[in-house]
Amino acid sequence: MRIFANLAYLSSVAPRFISLYRSRTFRRPELHDFLQQHIPETFKLPGVLQRRIKHYLFANAITSQWFTIIRGQKINDDEKLNCELMGLATPLFDALFDHLDYDLQQIEEMLSGISNDHLLVACRKLYQISLKRSKHPKLFIKYFNSTMNAQERSLQQKTNSISKNILNEITYQKGGFALLLYRTALHNAIIEEEKAVIFQLGGIMQLHNDIFDLHRDLSEGTVTLMTQCNDIPPFREHFRHEIQKIKKTILALPYEKSNLNQLNILFSIAVNSGFICLDQFENLQKKSGGIFQSEKYDRSELICDMEKPKNILRNILLTLRD
What we know:
By secondary structure, the protein is mainly α. The chain has one domain: Farnesyl Diphosphate Synthase (Orthogonal Bundle), CATH 1.10.600.10. Helices cover 73% and strands 0% of the residues. The chain has 14 helices and no strands. The protein has helices spanning 2-22, 29-38, 47-71, 77-98, 104-112, 118-133, 137-153, 164-183, 192-212, 214-220, 232-251, 257-286, 299-302, 309-321. α3 (47-71) packs across α4 and α3 crosses α12 (257-286). The longest helix has 30 residues, at 257-286. The radius of gyration is 20 Å and the shape is globular. The protein starts with a helix and ends with a helix.
């Protein structure tokens, strides 16, 4: 019965998800025209940042769909642009920490200062415009500051001495506060129960990203729970446990039950790809004498291609069986 119920919910959300997936190049005229008029500096950024912008715009569109599904209202054009501006800002502000080595004080000075640098100008304009457009300015400032604090704290991930407990805290704070910040792009108020769920969803999505970013994190010397892992099965069980825990919390939210079930299906589609990637890693572990040794594998072995038809089908089957 569960498979049939999941099939019904999957069918109900599939059109919107497929539409998002097909438009992931994000040449939306409204966004392009807005940026040309207000933040032309975004078109002058280096190629590596342009690629990360596309990734974050897609990820932001998915999570924005989660928020609108549980409220039972489609996203309007004004909200859509708000969400896109925040998705665009994420990799740019990350670059301030990762490539320019800015601290929080320097970022505060940059937000109120003057510069000719394309990245700094784009960051400052994105912050000012997003704050002005937000229907929840106090929450926007609160979660922006919390996200920046979490990002600065994540600089500890450049040291090998960091403990797993601290890594877990940083993982959830980075993802959780960023997702709460994204939520302020919508017009409807955020209820207290929803805040806790969004924080947990963001943490799990950050953990999911760390699974797929294993090769990049190794090459950049970034320590994550995934780079520290030498035994895949316990890691998979921890990942599964966290997912099941948040799904139960979602179902307890005071929204329409059908909307919550649709959110859980969309969430499953997003995170089940992590299990496909972990299966790939476990096969490497089996070939390495039972110990997962990520630093010894090449890029092709650590990259999980979710564009492959077989992986797309596996993801759908996993979701139906949840």
